[in-house]
Amino acid sequence: MTLFVVLVIYASSCKKEVLTIGADLLPNGDFVSIKAIDTLSIFSYTGYTDSVRTDNPTYSYIGQLYDPYFGTTTAGFVSQIRLSTKWDGLPFTVDSMKLFLHFLSTMGGGTDATHTLTISEISDQIYNDTAYYSTTPINLTGFKVSDIALPSLRTDTINDIELNLPGKGVEFGEYLTRDTTKLFYNNNVPDLRSYFKGLYFQMNSNSDPLMVSLSLVYDQSTYYNYFVLFVHDDSGTSKQYSFILDAKNINASFNKYTHDYSTAILGDKIVHRNTNYRDTLSYMQSLNGVYTKVALPGLAKIKNDPSFGKVAINKARLVIPVHFTKTAANPFISKSLPPQLVLRYKAKSGIKYPVTDYLLASTTLDLTHAFFDGQLDTVAQVYNFNIPDFVQKYLNDNTGNVEPELEIYEGSRSPSQSVIVPAPTNAIFQVNKSKNPVKFEFTYTKF
Questions:
Q1: How confident is the model at residue 11 (pLDDT cuts 50, 70, 90)?
Q2: Looking at residue 167, what DSSP letter applies?
Q3: What Cα–Cα distance (Å) separates residue 9 from each residue in 1, 222, 249, 435?
Q4: How many other CB atoms are found less than 10 A from the CB of residue 324?
Q5: Residue 45 burial (C-beta neighbours within 10 Å; 0-12, 13-18, 19+)
Q6: What is the model's pTM?
């Protein structure tokens, strides 16, 4: 045992000698130091932009959502329709018309509630290469089909529904085909899009608001959302024509959102949005509602400190604790909060971009953006965001193009007609002087 102890001491002494030998011969610039900072100043507040760009969306939404903290959100969408096959030009009689929809998510709606759709003809032509916003005014011709009753919907699966239009849809079918010379598509002359410019989809509920989603993006296999017109000719032969929403040749479309915070009954009705008030809570809302800003003035001090010189970022992680209270209506945190969130920054031009760490993911190898993370940790009840690349680029940037400020939002998902899309959800974060505030874990190597 004595011999073993002597050998260990000897080995330790030799190791220390090897590590330090010659150190006095090297210039100080050849050494690096690794340091961690956990005291960088950081604060958060709630922002809101009532008008956001929503043209050619990945997903469209119809209906209403109610949240006691966020109030009432109302959604609808505008879209052109496209004839799937060439019109044969023969005389016909309209028999009926039906609407087929493929709902990817369903949220809300009580068992005794009645929900109906209204589709209204728009009077202004819309275009694929034009920007449209959540507040874009919608002018209508006055023609509409109301009281299209929705069946009972399940919230845990995709719902494929077949809707009978009032009066068997004869009035709509006759109106749509009143000028058969326009039932074609041509980018050089006035066609169906100039004759029948599109539809505005809205939902009405007598109680218990309901929100559903669908995708107007063609999924490379079949159509999911369309009208079918049933007719017969003079000989009695039946025919049918489809007018497609999720067409292969994309229809112009955009989403409409409104948020009414005055109907909230918990919290402060988010009255401090777009101010620098440092509340103990900040908010992030789906469907382009309020979002949380995270300011990192401590990074600006590092960038402007000449003593830091060359710095390599080893670790930069934001830890955002959530405010979640288990209730009978929302017993599970995983079903009450978004499964993953994203960070973005605003350039000097005003354009917002996802942080570079999120974009580093390979579309084939890292579909979940595992390095960036951003996923809900249901045990710790936090979201973790790894952003060393963004921080490094910010510190190295000499143009002043980027400010040390980030926004938390819920990113869009790749459209798929065969996958259940998570219903829109909101999040509340513990920030500033709360008992468990936002943290910025920062480790760097100084040369």
A1: very low
A2: G
A3: 13, 75, 77, 47
A4: 17
A5: buried
A6: 0.85
- Rounded CA-CA distance 182/284 in Å is 46
Task: Band the pLDDT of 219: cuts 50, 70, 90.
Answer: confident
Handedness of CA 304, 305, 306, 308 (dihedral sign): negative
Q: How many CB atoms lie within 10 A of CB 301?
A: 13
Compute CA distances 155 → 36, 252, 402, 446, whole Å.
Answer: 46, 29, 42, 53
Average pLDDT, the chain: 88
Residue 228 sits at the vertex; the CA angle it makes with 189 and 241, to the nearest 5 degrees, is 50
Distance CA 203, CA 51 (A): 21
Buried b (16+ CB within 10 A) or exposed e, 256-289: bbebebeebeebebbebbeeeeebebbbbbbbbb
> Over the stretch 86-103, which tens digit does the pLDDT of each residue have?
898 899 999 999 999 999
DSSP strands (E only) in 150-237: 159-164, 199-205, 210-214, 226-232
**Within 261-342, where are the H helices?**
297-303, 333-336
What's the confidence (pLDDT) of residue 167?
A: 97
Torsion of CA 118, 124, 127, 131, to 10 degrees: -90
Residue 384 one-letter amino acid: N
Q: Which two tokens stand for residue 226?
A: 């369309």
Q: Which residues of 121-130 are buried (b: 16+ CB within 10 A; e: fewer)?
A: bbeeebeeee
Place of tokens 């490094």: 392
d(CA 129, CA 126): 9
Beta strand segments in 285-365, E: 291-295, 311-321, 342-346, 352-354
**Taking a C-beta distance cutoff of 8 angstroms, is the pair 182, 189 a contact?**
no
The pLDDT tens digits for 238-280 are 999 999 999 999 999 999 999 999 999 999 999 999 998 999 9
Helix, strand, or coil (residue 391): helix
